[in-house]
Amino acid sequence: METELVNKKLTPTDIASCLAYPAGTLGAFQMVQGQNAINFNARDPTGRVWEFKLCTRNHGRYRKPVIRGDWLGYVREKGLTVDDVIILTMVEDAENGVGYNIRVEPNLELAI
C-alpha cells in the first residue's frame, strides 16, 4: 500500500534551504517521545537512495517540520526549481515493512 505524504509545489525556501513538511502527516514517522528529528531513506525513480532527516522545533506552539539531510543535494542533482512539484510517498508491505519514495513532477508551464 502506498500513501502520499507530500505533494507540493516547491517554494524559494524549499529550493535554497530545506523542504517544509506538512505537519498533518507527521504521524507517518515514528519519532521517539522527546526527540525532534528522525532519519529516513527515500528511493527516487532511478533507484538511488537519499538520506533525509525530518526535524521539528523543540519549543513553541507550532512544530514547523522540515526535511534536511541530503535534501539540498537532491535539489541540485535533480535541477529542481520553484514550482516543480515534489511527491513523497510511504510504501508499506508485509515483506519489507515501511519504505519511502520520492519523485519530482517538473513545472512545465512556459513563461511568455
TrEMBL record:
Domain of life: Eukaryota
Subcellular localization, as worded in the UniProt entry: Nucleus
Name of the protein in its database record: TF-B3 domain-containing protein
GO molecular function terms listed in the Swiss-Prot or TrEMBL record: DNA binding
Record keywords: DNA-binding, Nucleus, Transcription, Transcription regulation
Annotated SUPFAM superfamilies: DNA-binding pseudobarrel domain
InterPro entries: B3_DNA-bd (IPR003340), DNA-bd_pseudobarrel_sf (IPR015300)
Keyword Metal-binding found: no
Primary localisation category: nucleus
